[in-house]
């Protein structure tokens, strides 16, 4: 569920974080929104680069054009989150995050850590997954056709690709080299 926070407190945290970023850490302080309940919130063009959002509840949040480069989102609840219009999650830690049915339209996840993340039913168009770590990620029914920078090397580390949609060439490689990833996962694993 996460701890509650008022909009006034959130604005104050954001102001301090903006000052921290603009002064390269000499003033203000890095945002710590770990374990905070931000479910359904709308954060448009907010800069939370390098912020701590580990374990935060961001389910159904609208994070249009948000900047989360290098942010700690480890274990965050991001079910049905909207990461639209160039949301920047480069090098963010999304390990063990739940991104079930997340919308990743035109977001940048270059170098993001998605190990052991739940990406079941994720939707994307134009997402950049170059150098993203997908080890142990559950990509069940993920719609990944058209994803930029996605390689067989990344996919071989996934937990499952059962019923996922991939570009035809990438799907052929998976079928030839790692057909077990396309099988129905064992629920006991």
Name the helix and strand elements from N-terminus to C-terminus, one letter apiece: HHH
Kindly state the number of beta strands: 0
Q: Could you estimate the helical fraction of the residues in percent? A: 10-25%
Kindly estimate the percentage of residues that lie in beta strands according to DSSP: under 5%
Report the radius of gyration as a whole number of Å.
Answer: 17 Å
Number of helices: 3
Write a compact overview of the structure shown.
The chain is mainly α. It has helices spanning 7-22, 152-155, 168-177.
Structure description:
There is one protein chain. The chain has 189 residues and is an all-alpha fold. It contains 3 helices and no strands. It has helices spanning 7-22, 152-155, 168-177. The two termini are 26 Å apart. The mean pLDDT is 95.
What distinguishing features does this structure have?
189 residues, mainly alpha, 0% strand
Secondary structure layout:
Layout (H helix, E strand, L loop, with lengths): L6 H16 L129 H4 L12 H10 L12
